[in-house]
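User: Show me a protein chain along with its predicted structure.
Assistant: Here is one chain, sequence first, then structure tokens.
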Amino acid sequence: VVELIAEVVARYHADYDEAAAGHALTGAQAKLLSLLSLGPLPMRKLAQKLKCEPSNVTGIVDRLEARGLAERRPDPADRRIKMAAATDEGLRVARDLREGLHFAREPLAGLSADERGTLRDLLRRMLDA
């Protein structure tokens, strides 16, 4: 089971990196943009989600900002905190990235809705353990 999970993860990362390269993004830039497509996040929270140092997130956001895909905003609740947010173009690229991920879509299409639900529930249980 462990080897199968490792293979799934490896294929996912390879597919994600390929989709990212199609937009001249690194895998880390694409993952951060994907997180921002769900809504603005504080820089520290992004670092936690990406499991990296906040200084790395700063560099990734800088590069996305330079391309017009992300922007920094003050947190409305605490103006000392900087939030990163996807721009309209960033949201479009994040959507294109999701649509460009073939690895998961094709195998999952072979599962029934019940099987996909069971798989989702089992994966959530694993992550919550």
